[in-house]
Every structure is written in C-alpha cells, then in structure tokens.
Design brief:
The complex is a heterodimer of chains A (406) and B (76). Helix content of chain A is 37%, strand content 21%. Chain A has 406 residues and is an alpha/beta fold. Chain A is globular. The longest helix of chain B is centred in the middle third of the chain and has 16 residues, at 41-56. The chains are: A alpha/beta (406), B alpha+beta (76). The interface between A and B is large, with 69 and 49 residues.
Amino acid sequence: MSDQADALARGAAAEGGKPLIDSQVEMARCIDSIRHCMDTLRHQTSEPVPMGVNAASRHRLTIVHKEPIGVVVAISAFNHPLNLIAHQAGPAIAAGCPVIIKPAENTPLSCFRLVEIFHQAGLPKAWCQVLVTENHQVAEQLATDSRVAFLSFIGSAKVGWYLRSKLAPGTRCALEHGGVAPVIVDQHADIEAAVPGLAKGSFYHAGQVCVSVQRIFAHQSLARTLAEKLAAAGKRMIVGDPLAADTEVGPLIRPDEVKRVHAWVEEAIAAGAELLSGGHSLDNHCYAPTVLFNPTASAKVSQMEIFGPVVCVYPFSEPDEALQAANSLPFAFQAAVYSQNIDAAMYYAERLDASAVMLNEHTAFRVDWMPFAGLKHSGHGVGGIAHSMRDMQVDKMIVLTSKSIL
Amino acid sequence: MSSREHFPLQIPGITPGKGQQVEVVSPFDQQLLATVETADATAVDTALNTAYALYRDRQGWLPVPQRLAILEKPCR
C-alpha cells in the first residue's frame, strides 16, 4: 500500500473527484488507520473479573477476552473511497471477522484495489469480499440478512435509518450520516485567523463531507465582514480537474447533484438570502464555492445537508439565539466555536448539540483515532478505529473453578 | 492505470462474467474509468454463506499474529 500510495491517491481522485492534494492526504490517513488497527489489536488485553471475594466466588478465576462478533457487512460512501474502507474493513480484519464490503457505486475502484493489497498480504479472499450490488433491493438483502452480525453503514440518513429498521434480530449496527454542521463565531473571534480554516472546512471536497461547515452563526458586529472574507476566499479557490496539482475544489459526484445544489441555492436567494460568491455551476460538473448571507431558517440550505460547496452565514445578537438556531435541527455531529474568550467559547461548547465541538477549528477536523459520532438523525454508535473494533467484537467470560484455587 | 479496466465479480463459488455490468466514470469529465460486474441476489447469498461458514468454523479463525501480519505488510 505504501509503495502504491500515489497510484491509489490518483485513482481515488479520478473516480471520486476529490482534488489530488486532498486525496494524497486521505491516502496517508488510510495507512495510518490500518496502523491504528494494528496498535489497537496489539494492546487489546483480556480483563480479569474479581473472584474469591465471597463464598459464592471462592475457588474461581475469571477472565474476559474478545471474540469476533461474526459476519460484518460494510456499506460505504463515495466521499473518502480509501480511508472509509480502512475505517470499516480494517477493524473487521483486526477483530477477526469475515467482512463483505459494498463500496459506493460511484467509487468502487479504490476499494477493489485496496482489498487486493490485503489479499496479496495474506488475507484469504473469502475473509474480505467486495461486491457492488445490481440494485438497491439486493443491497438491502445483504444488509438485513440474518447471517449478518454487524452492519457498518456510512451514507444518507434516509437509507441508514431505513436499513436499521429492517435488520435481522441480533444484528448490531453503526450508522454515520450527515450533520448540517453549525459554527458559532462570537464577537471575540479573530476572524482573520478563522477565515482560512472556515473556507477549507466549507469547500473541502466541494462540501461533500458529513462534517462540512454549513451554517455559520456570526455575531452581528462581524457577520458581514466574515461573510465577505469567506466569499473572497471562495472566489480565490481553484476549481476544476481533481487530478491537477493545484486544484482545491473538484466536481460534485454526479451531474444531477450539481442541479440539486443549484436549485437549493436559487430557492434560498428567492426567499431573501444574499449571494456573496458563487451561485452558479461551472463546466465539467463543478459548482462555484458559494457564500449565502442570511438565508431564511426555512430554506433547504438552512434545514438539510447541502453536500455541495455552499456555506451560509447568519448574523445573531445574543448567544442563546445562536445556540437555539444551531440546535434547531434533528441533526447533530461535529460543531465549532470561534472565540478568543475562553468563558464564551466554553459557554457555547457546553450547550451545543454535538458529539464534538472544535474551538477555533473548523467542524471537518478529524484524526482517525478520534471518536466520531453522529447524534440524533446523524448517526448511531461511535466511529473511529478503536470504537469500531469494539463494536465488531464480543466479550466472552471464562470462569475457571478449581478447589486448588485458594 | 488502464482507462478500460474491468473488475469481474470475485465471490468464491460464483463464476464471473454472468452478472450485469456498471460503468464507473470520472465525475469531472464523465470519462469511462472502468467497468464492474455486479452481484445479484444469488451472488450476495453465496457471499454471505461463505462468510458465515468462516465465522462458524472456530478452528479456522485467523489468529492474532496472522491478522497483525496481514495488516502490517501493506503499511511497510
């Protein structure tokens, strides 16, 4: 894998549209994720349970060790075609589970290539099978079969919750969906320092990331300035061929996604949002990085995951007004607060509906050993290598009884 | 990388070449990157049978040192 890293990154950029510079970062993270699977497995220990502490437990020694849970089915998403496979299949291999992967239909090639490397490394083919199903019914059959012990699903909330409702009795699952991520920028924020990160978090992989910055609630004293600086940053970004070395924003995954994103932007503008940058498609299925100022709360861009290079800035006057708006949706994943005032930052961090709150960092920040969890409609269970491995194992307690045990 | 790579179905017990094919294209210019053979209900059932049989055969479980070696080799 290390010696094929550049080819794998180029392949991922070609099929998924993530710019090469970001695909190379993803490839490096993919290798780190696999290393983290090894580290987690190496440091996994059997745990004793106290015995010999009363008459009932006398003459006994007890140990709890880990067993594979059973067959793992991993249904993956298109937006990180290498590292998501590492996050879903790596822990399954480490845990000792047979795994069947259904990669995203738009980006299966990276998965095939990655798994082939594991097969070459000695993993018997039957222990990690990759398949693209011919239709959604067959995919549902795969996920909901009674032989499946654990379903790892990354994708839309609609499909994820539907599949969870259809799982066979006993099948456990982890779901990872989108977050419509909120950011609060208070009056104490250093917006010069904040804008580069917010621009990256908004437009990284053309916004097709579950923790992409989408809703920025900025204090009214600086909201306009922040939005204009973000718009300027968006206009400077190089948009286009994902395989070009200097591209910062690539295409959306399918042409119909470009149309959908544009329709949402037009709807927001028609309802009163001010367009500060972008707002139009470009050649070759790209969409210009777009900043909308003060869309209505009922606009689709304020209510649902855009999954496109569009960010919204909303002015607020009182902290609880920003919190109420940020927490108003049925989605919650990662959030962010920008402030140089620690009391203010912690006020927001403690009150935001989120599984993680970044302080002076954008919402898309992630390293692969972090717990990573959608709340409310955004997911079920906790991702991250060690957490996924725990999900894919069961504890087995062995109780040894012997009169020789004092 | 070939521009017309093909990925046949690789389910142990299923003969490749009989399934439908889907095209994988570049989202940037819609250039054909590869074709992939898809799995139907029978192929999925076979894959699940294979995986479940591996799980039920405890004597055949992959020991930890083997799993570590499989994970480590690609990272070198």
